[in-house]
Specification:
Elements: E1 2-5, E2 8-12, E3 18-25, E4 28-33, E5 41-46, E6 52-58, E7 67-76, E8 82-87, E9 96-97
Antiparallel strand pairs: 1-2, 2-3, 3-4, 5-6, 6-7, 7-8, 7-9
């Protein structure tokens, strides 16, 4: 599957994993191979309903007890569909501690 956005073209497999980016500038193309899986570590915490409640992202090697995470909280409707995504402390900064996810305020 290929997607073109503002001069950027990405090819992704069926799992939506970014495989490559083609950048076109003044008619010249540059191919960048990107393994997105190596760029971020993902952590997921499930609520008692079995749904993903918290999703965290950090640089590979960041301990769950260390600052360096950005944490999202999913809000679900009565049909278990995500209707809102809230950020810890109201921002997407990589400065949170995954192990402290329940103590943050979300907006």
């Amino acid at each position: 599957m290929a997607t073109v956005l503002g001069g950027y073209e990405s090819n992704a497999d069926t799992k939506d994993t970014l495989k490559e980016i083609t950048v076109t500038t003044a008619g010249a193309k540059t191919l960048l191979n990107v393994d997105v899986g190596s760029l971020l570590t993902i952590a997921i915490a499930y609520g008692s309903n079995g749904l993903a409640e918290y999703v965290g992202e950090a640089a590979p090697g960041t301990a769950k007890s260390a600052a360096g995470w950005r944490i999202k909280k999913n809000v679900y409707d009565s049909n278990n569909r995500v209707v809102d995504v809230l950020w810890a402390e109201g921002n997407a900064d990589f400065d949170k501690v995954w192990n402290n996810r329940a103590s943050y305020s979300y907006s």
